[in-house]
Design brief:
- By secondary structure, this protein is mostly helical.
- It contains 19 helices and no strands.
- It is globular, with a radius of gyration of 21 Å.
Length: about 425
């Protein structure tokens, strides 16, 4: 039996819900607010890193038999280290805490007075938010019924309402491009896509998606892989459509009011202009649903992975641990989490991109797989050093790398490493 029809759509909606969280809401309107009349070239860059690469990541992992198997083509030690780092990044260290912090910033302070004790409110919010997310994550095989059937359609419906209002009665046109978007909008949009973390998440979500596909009566490895790939395409198409709507809202918002500080502010401005006081309620609901859906998916995925490598602690135990740790970190605040995430993602993302790209090499060309270890050695070294440079390490010499000035200095080392790996004699056995 293969996944088809309504079941295929529901699993695709579930995967979209797991992808679409805090960063996915913030960055498209934020990019558009800065890009202005250059919005669509910037969004083309974002589409590559935040839609195309995640879909290819889902396909790569499905075809390879899991992230461990794919990363193992580099080396077993790399597979373990990279996989753990990826799950920690999209899990309790960055992405999961960000879901609670972002939803709090958009759903609570707008309704409190200026002198309200936000620290106490943030703590209370995080406890309730993660308790509810954990309750759903404890039944990962039910995520399709709970996220795909219920929460995802509500979320998409609310975004459609906001977009429709922006099209029917736009308060202004697009503004002028700002900063890097004036000269390199597509490259800047591509780099901003890192912050969604979806390419890394795509490498991790395969576990939970496979569980949900099997829960719908699909058996056999080929059928599960096929269902995973097609679900990824559906999720990618939905991401692209929603990003386009959010970008238009952000560009219109910036054209009507002074340039916002970020995408959250751009959406808040647009909601206020379009709906008045009711806009805060609409926006709070959108952010809560998006962040909550992703939080549930991430807790589930991380719990399943760490239980697989350390089964002494049950899946429920890992899920509970990640919920507690994430609740603690989320109280550091959104600004601190975002500041920490940029260099971490700058180091990890190029390696994830290369891993996905190499998975599509023809088998005859990749035989012996020297392209994997040598390419990853060059790419990882460059991306880590560039990330250290970006946080102040004395590595100005790296500025000489082609494309380093636009944040893509790792590309030439990656190409050189893969080329050298392919030129070396294939390993035997």
């Amino acid at each position: 039996m293969s996944l088809r029809g309504k079941d295929l759509l529901l699993v695709g909606l579930t995967l979209f819900s797991m992808f679409f969280g805090a960063g996915n809401l913030i960055f498209p309107p934020g990019i558009a607010a800065q890009a202005g009349s250059h919005t669509w070239p910037a969004m083309a860059g974002l589409a590559v890193s935040a839609v195309g690469l995640p879909v290819l990541g889902v396909v790569a992992v499905a075809r390879s038999g899991g992230l461990d198997a794919l990363a193992g083509r580099v080396h077993p030690a790399f597979a373990r280290a990279f996989t753990v780092a990826a799950y920690l990044a999209i899990g309790p260290c960055l992405a999961i805490p960000r879901t609670a912090t972002t939803s709090f910033e958009m759903a609570v302070p707008p309704f409190l007075g200026a002198d309200a004790p936000l620290a106490g409110a943030r703590l209370a919010w995080s406890l309730v938010f993660f308790a509810a997310a954990l309750a759903l994550a404890l039944r990962p095989e039910k995520l399709t019924d709970r996220l795909g059937k219920v929460l995802c359609p509500i979320l998409v419906g609310l975004i459609l309402v906001t977009f429709a209002a922006c099209v029917i009665d736009p308060p202004a046109g697009y503004g002028l491009p700002q900063g890097a978007y004036a000269g390199h909008p597509a490259v800047r949009g591509f780099l901003e896509g890192y912050q969604t973390m979806d390419t890394i998440a795509a490498l991790a979500f395969g576990i939970v998606i496979a569980v949900n596909i099997r829960a719908r009566g699909v058996d056999g490895t080929r059928a599960v892989v096929s269902g995973t790939v097609r679900s990824g395409v559906i999720a990618g198409a939905m991401l692209l459509a929603v990003y386009a709507m959010l970008a238009h809202i952000g560009a219109i918002s910036a054209g009507a009011m002074p340039a916002p500080s970020d995408g959250a502010q751009a959406l808040a401005n647009a909601a206020g202009l379009l709906f008045g006081p009711m806009g805060n309620i609409l926006l709070a609901a959108i952010f809560f649903l998006a962040c909550f859906n992703v939080c549930v998916g991430l807790i589930s995925s991380c719990g399943a992975f760490f239980h697989s490598i350390c089964p002494k602690l049950s899946y429920r135990g890992w899920a509970f641990l990640f919920a507690v740790v994430s609740a603690v970190i989320s109280n550091a605040g959104l600004a601190q989490i975002m500041a920490f995430s940029a260099p971490v993602l700058g180091a990890i993302y190029p390696m994830a991109i290369l891993l996905i790209a190499l998975s599509f090499l023809p088998p005859a060309l990749a035989q012996g797989r020297r392209a994997y270890p040598v390419g990853m050695l060059f790419t990882g070294t460059a991306s880590v050093l560039l990330a250290l440079r970006d946080v102040g390490a004395p590595l100005a010499i790296l500025d000489a790398l082609p494309l380093a000035g636009v944040g893509l200095g790792w590309i030439l080392p990656a190409a050189a490493g893969v080329g050298l790996g392919l030129a070396l004699p294939a390993r035997k056995g």
